[in-house]
Write a structure and sequence with these properties.
Radius of gyration: 22 Å
Strand content: under 5%
Oligomer: single chain
CATH topology: MetI-like fold
Distance between the termini: 21 Å
CATH class: Mainly Alpha
Shape: elongated
Order of helices and strands: HHHHHHHHHH
């Protein structure tokens, strides 16, 4: 188990949701006498152009970024699981339709598709979860589809089919547990990808809007004064890097364990 990645992820998640208890400073408090102060004992991550405490803002923004990341990754992975199992199990006719649908979505660059969707609606936490989910289910569906073909050929599945066991029961009780490792791997990749997508949209000014904040919006606030106030962009960027690194490392670990189990089997 990659202990360092688990520790990094645990600290960031705990700090984002419970850090305000340990560090009870308002993320919106304006302090005209404390504008662009560098990191110090009183302001561990410095202050921004309005005198707001960056650590308090990183804590508050982390909640939004993590909720969007986990929410959109879960919805996208669940949709990909359902679509992939249906394509790999329910027959060639449905499979061809789903393959065409996946290929149609994949023809559009993901980030430009995000830009197009967000431009028609006012961005918020739940809107971004839905929009990022729409652009993130295809990879999961293709992985599950290919794996489902192999599972469908196993003898015990054919016996269940001959015994007239309901298709829904076969898919939920027998397919889903075998696909759980792939689901988790895709989910961990999806969380990091969703956080990066939200950060990119917010950095461009079309993601989370004030008074809400995310790591992406905090990062964008610091780009204009990066030469004199490096800490404004460094610390939210460090949080994004930490979560992405930890999740990708964990995903690689679980993928290697899954491959080992398959080889032993």
């Amino acid at each position: 188990m990659p202990v360092l990645s688990v520790a990094i992820l645990g600290v960031i998640v705990f700090g984002s949701f419970f850090g305000h208890i340990v560090y009870p400073v308002s993320a919106s408090l304006l302090q005209p006498e404390a504008i662009l102060l560098p990191p110090s004992f009183s302001h561990p991550m410095g202050t921004d152009r309005l005198g707001r405490d960056v650590l308090a803002r990183v804590i508050a923004g982390g909640q939004v970024s993590l909720i969007i990341g986990v929410g959109s990754a879960f919805v996208a992975s669940l949709a990909g699981l359902m679509i992939g199992v249906s394509a790999g199990f329910l027959g060639k006719g449905l499979d061809k339709t789903i393959v065409v649908l996946i290929d149609l979505f994949l023809t559009f660059p993901t980030f430009f598709l995000l830009l197009a969707l967000v431009s028609y609606v006012e961005a918020s936490t739940w809107v971004l979860i839905v929009v990022i989910s729409i652009t993130g289910w295809m990879g999961m569906a293709r992985l599950i589809r290919s794996e489902s073909f192999g599972i469908a050929q196993k003898p015990f599945i054919k016996i269940l089919m001959m015994a007239k066991v309901p298709l829904g029961k076969i898919m939920l009780k027998y397919f889903t547990p075998l696909l759980a490792p792939i689901f988790f791997i895709s989910f961990t990749f999806g969380v990091s990808g969703a956080i990066l997508a939200e950060s990119g949209l917010s950095f461009l000014g079309i993601g989370i809007m004030p008074p809400q904040m995310s790591w992406g919006t905090i990062l964008a606030d610091g780009k204009e004064v990066l030469d004199i106030a490096w800490w404004l962009s460094f610390f939210p960027g460090l949080m994004i890097f930490g979560v992405t690194y930890a999740l990708i490392t964990l995903s690689d670990f679980f993928q290697s364990r899954t491959n080992e189990n398959e080889n032993h089997a």
